[in-house]
Write a structure and sequence with these properties.
The protein has about 475 residues and is α+β, with helices and mostly antiparallel strands. The protein has 2 domains: about 100 residues, Beta Barrel (OB fold (Dihydrolipoamide Acetyltransferase, E2P)); about 300 residues, BirA Bifunctional Protein, domain 2. It is built from 14 helices and 16 strands. The strands form 3 sheets. Strands 6-10-11-16-15-14-13-12 form an 8-stranded mixed beta sheet, sandwiched between helices. A 5-stranded mixed β-barrel has the order 1-2-3-5-4. A hairpin with a 3-residue loop joins strand 14 and strand 15. The longest helix is centred in the N-terminal third of the chain and has 23 residues. The chain is globular and about 85 Å long. Bound molecules: 4-amino-1,4-dioxobutan-2-aminium adenosine-5'-monophosphate (4AD) and magnesium ion.
Length: about 475
């Protein structure tokens, strides 16, 4: 195919009066003369000026919104306002027609719900192309961050036989015939006859395998899809989401918090530097939306201001117990404004409590540590008090929990004792326990919910709008 130049490069370049070819989709066609062309390389469109007098009228008719075209001509300084350069077309060709009457993506404002139903086409809108460009930048920044620090990226398996979080919210993987399931003598499903000779599921976390790798490579991270069959229809839960899970040997909870805070700040800073056009667009979008809302519901800070604030401020660190005191005595709790009123130490914190701490009390990101052991996973390192574990959750404004992690229980006796208490079968986890038998070391790690981070940096309210094809209860379309 003919070589094309990207619109992002043309807009930035100062080489004028060159002959170039661009390809893209028509966003609008004004006065039978001006095409606004977008190729996804930037939020900006290139104005293509059509020589309407000499152009075939039949061709002009095909320049509809959504049509794919290729345009060759001279790039000149723009005569009009609002753009730096424009292309004076000498040769125009339609690559793919678009029936403008039926095309769902009209040049007007669509609701996000409508665009979700048209997720196969929503990437052609400004909002979603901006979100997905930023998603890419965040991916890249995360790899950059860990690579620069000497971490190795580990590909943890997607199909596993274990439940890393012990929460039992897993999608089963099987090749058994659902209409004719083999049953053993005990009347239960005979998984020996299944593909792997045992029951398997899609992974809920790559942590356990990351731990194995860290106890040899010292510093590793995973970046992969994870699956949870929890029936959560919220704006922060997906059934299929991506998680980044660093795991570090010779590290404790403080090292873990330092790493997480540094990583978040690095990534946010990176996006601020590389994606300003897209951030500016998304920021304006939120400002426009907020105008329709009552003042109390509006964003306290503009998007870029919020990101900068996050990079510039030290995250507040406190224990669960300290946070619990604040929450139990706070106004919304006393006045029973919370859906879950906090009364007894040991209760799990809900998103409303996390958001109160971050948005109302401290007004900045918060790291909570040392949670009651009964609300956390079996692998977390037990504190000397016998009631709490070396856990850490990072809470972000507008999001709540963005990171969950801990120091790991590296002492074999303590780990097995906890597994027994929690009813986690040891025989299936010998490979995990081996690390505690052979050269065990203190180690720590965390899981960053990738989509929640994308929500934070883009300001998108619903997690279903920051992943190209969201999976959630009742929906596996596209
Ligand atoms: O807190 P979680 O469950 O921690 C783990 O899975 C640990 N194995 C991580 C580790 O220590 N290596 O999940 C980690 C993060 C959460 O803080 C949240 O941001 C995100 O993953 N997350 C979800 N994101 C979207 N949809 C869901 N259903 C999510 N569940 C968790
Ligand atoms: Mg968690």
């Amino acid at each position: 195919m003919q070589k094309r130049e990207k619109i992002a490069d043309l807009i930035q370049s100062d080489q004028l009066d060159r002959k170039v070819t661009v390809m893209g989709w028509i966003r609008s066609f004004r006065n039978d003369r001006f095409i606004a062309l977008n190729d996804g390389s930037t939020i900006k469109t290139l104005q293509v000026v059509v020589d309407q007098e000499n152009e075939d009228p039949a061709l002009l008719k095909r320049f509809t919104v959504g049509a794919a075209v290729t345009a060759t001509g001279k790039i000149i300084e723009s005569q009009g306002k609002g753009q730096s350069v424009e292309l004076v077309a000498e040769k125009l060709e339609v690559l793919g027609d678009c029936d403008a009457d039926k095309y769902p993506i009209q040049p007007k404002k669509h609701s996000l719900e409508f665009l979700r139903e048209n997720a196969h086409l929503r990437v052609r809108t400004n909002t979603f192309s901006a979100v997905f460009r930023i998603r890419h930048a965040v991916t890249f920044a995360i790899h950059q961050f860990f690579n620069d620090k000497g971490f190795y990226n580990i590909h943890s398996p997607i199909i596993t036989g274990s439940d890393a979080e012990g929460a039992g919210e897993m999608f089963q993987v099987t090749t058994m015939d659902m209409d004719n399931i083999p049953v053993g003598e005990d009347g239960k499903v005979d998984y020996k006859q299944d593909f792997f000779g045992k029951a398997t599921n899609l992974t809920v976390s790559g942590q356990l395998q990351a731990e194995l790798a860290a106890l040899g490579l010292s510093q590793v991270y995973t970046f992969g899809p994870t699956f949870r069959a929890e029936n959560s229809n919220t704006s922060r839960h997906l059934a299929e989401f991506w998680m980044i899970e660093p795991e570090v040997a010779f590290a404790d909870l403080d090292d873990n918090m330092d790493l997480a805070e540094e990583m978040l700040k690095y990534v946010i800073q990176y996006v601020m530097e590389k994606c300003d056009d897209d951030l500016q667009f998304l920021e304006n979008r939120i400002v426009q939306e907020d105008k329709q809302k009552p003042t109390a519901e509006r964003q306290p800070m503009d998007l870029r201001e919020k990101l900068k604030f996050c990079v510039d401020n030290t995250f507040e660190r406190l224990t669960y117990t300290e946070a619990f005191q604040i929450l139990r005595n706070c106004k919304p709790n006393k006045k029973k404004k919370f859906q879950f009123v906090l009364d007894e130490w040991g209760a799990d914190l809900q998103s409303e409590h996390e958001r109160f701490l971050v948005e109302k009390h401290f007004k900045k990101p918060v790291i909570l540590t040392d949670y009651p052991k009964d609300i956390k996973s079996f692998y977390m390192r037990q504190n000397d008090d016998g009631t709490t574990v070396g856990a850490m959750d990072i809470l972000f404004p507008g999001i709540g929990e963005i990171i969950g992690g801990s120091a790991r229980e590296e002492r074999l006796d303590k780990l097995t004792q906890r597994m027994d208490e929690m009813g986690i079968p040891q025989d299936e986890m010998q490979w995990f326990l081996d690390t505690r038998k052979y050269g065990t070391v203190p180690h720590a790690g965390y899981g960053l919910g990738f989509e929640r981070l994308i929500q934070f940096v883009t300001g998108m309210a619903n997690i279903r709008d920051v992943i190209p094809f969201p999976r959630y209860p009742g929906s596996a379309e596209f």
